[in-house]
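User: Could you go from structure to sequence for me? I need the amino acid at each position, not a summary. Structure tokens:
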């Protein structure tokens, strides 16, 4: 199939950047990233700088890939990361626009690569549990009810890709933060730090320059793991409870 690509090229964080058109021919069985790989081989052979883009597992599990494809984070296929997208989703003769995540808290480093370290700092502020080290505890010492384990697992499937932020008109990170607050806050092992975790992670998220949630639900629509905005409501309840506890009103 013949495809015209319009790709965002930006030499560095301070370069203004521009869209560049490329013609390419690719099998419909190729993945979207393989199509970019093939284009990069051609650019290199021609002595041009290849297009920089992030990727690692290419299996939809690491959260490293992230592209706006025709204005949609991760492209047109529901619950599918950019690395799991295949060219058969497009039609011969299509023009495809490829851009980096667009969000103030995710500055562009080069071409399609953005700096997502703000997510790391949210995790560092509370996305962990403190445990005593020593011999491994007996496996059944802390029973976890099946519904609780299932709910915590659902929240834990967030791969930290940042699509939720990129698609949100406010550049909000509530869906990501809520998933991380909730998967630990549900489990018995995560109760000790539950309230401090909610406050620390929400306040770090705000300090990192993400926008506020106004319920557009674009995050939920593009999330490749189907993370529900119900987790945002739960995070808000935990945050409010934590503030009331600190004020001695609960
Ligand atoms: S909530 Fe979904 S879209 Fe956001 S970082 Fe997690 S997996 Fe990606
Ligand atoms: S490269 Fe790992 S999720 Fe896409």
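Assistant: Here is the amino acid at each position, in order:
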């Amino acid at each position: 199939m013949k495809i015209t690509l319009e790709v965002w090229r930006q030499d560095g964080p301070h370069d203004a950047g521009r869209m560049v058109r490329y013609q390419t021919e690719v099998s419909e069985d190729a993945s979207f990233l393989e199509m970019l790989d093939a284009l990069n081989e051609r650019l290199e052979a021609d002595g041009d700088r290849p297009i920089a883009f992030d990727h690692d597992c290419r299996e939809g599990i690491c959260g490293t890939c992230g592209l706006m494809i025709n204005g949609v984070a991760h492209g047109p296929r529901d619950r599918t990361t950019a690395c799991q997208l295949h060219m058969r989703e497009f039609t011969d003769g299509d023009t495809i626009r490829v851009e980096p995540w667009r969000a103030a808290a995710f500055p562009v480093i080069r071409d399609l690569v953005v700096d997502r370290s703000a997510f790391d700092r949210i995790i560092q502020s509370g996305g962990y549990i403190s445990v005593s080290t020593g011999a491994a505890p007996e496996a059944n010492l802390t029973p976890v009810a099946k519904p609780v384990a299932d709910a915590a697992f659902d929240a834990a499937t967030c791969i930290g890709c940042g699509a939720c932020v990129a698609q949100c008109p406010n550049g909000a990170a509530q869906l990501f933060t809520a998933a991380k607050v909730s998967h630990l806050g549900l489990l018995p092992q995560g109760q000790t730090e539950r309230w401090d975790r909610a406050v620390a992670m929400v306040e770090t998220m705000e300090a990192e320059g993400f926008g506020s949630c106004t319920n557009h639900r674009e995050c939920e629509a593009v999330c490749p793991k189907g993370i529900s905005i119900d987790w945002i409501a739960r995070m808000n309840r935990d945050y409010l409870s934590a503030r009331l506890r600190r004020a001695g009103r609960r």
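One structural detail worth keeping in mind: The two ends are 63 Å apart (CA to CA).
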